Amino acid sequence: MDPVTLSVDVLLQSIIGASDYAEQLIAEARTGKVYFVVQEFALYCALYSVREDDSKTMRYLAELLKYSQIEQDMPAYIGVEARSSWAPTSDEIEHWRAVALG
Q1: Structural contact between residues 43 and 69, judged by C-beta atoms closer than 8 angstroms
Q2: Is residue 86 within 8 Å of 41, Cβ to Cβ?
Q3: DSSP states of 20-63 as a string?
Q4: pTM, two decimal places
């Protein structure tokens, strides 16, 4: 079984974008060919990038996470000071959204 790291835009696409790619990834995971690696920060950024008026489908994200190992980017809890720098820039968010929405 091969690990596949899921990027922010792939995670975001599973929530707000077309479902084709997420369905393809999920099908591969169901066969046992791959499992997914999700960085904690990537998951945070994907969720942070969702807008209130987006059409959302959480089922694909849930299915991807079902076959995922979530990895920490930093030690367990490093305090509010370090986490305050986690907010992605508006340019990053716009880039991820553009990729996710095709």
Answers
A1: no
A2: yes
A3: HHHHHHHHHHHTTSEEEEEEHHHHHHHHHT--TTS---HHHHHH
A4: 0.87
Q: Is the Cβ–Cβ distance between 6 and 51 less than 8 Å? A: no
Encode burial over 5-33: b for 16+ CB neighbours within 10 A, e otherwise.
Answer: ebebbbbbbbbbbeeeebeebbebbeeee
Nearest CA among 15, 18, 24 for reference residue 101 = 18
Residue 19 — pLDDT band, cuts 50, 70, 90?
Answer: confident
- SS3 label, residue 101: helix
Domain that holds residue 81: 2-101
How many domains would you assign to the chain? 1
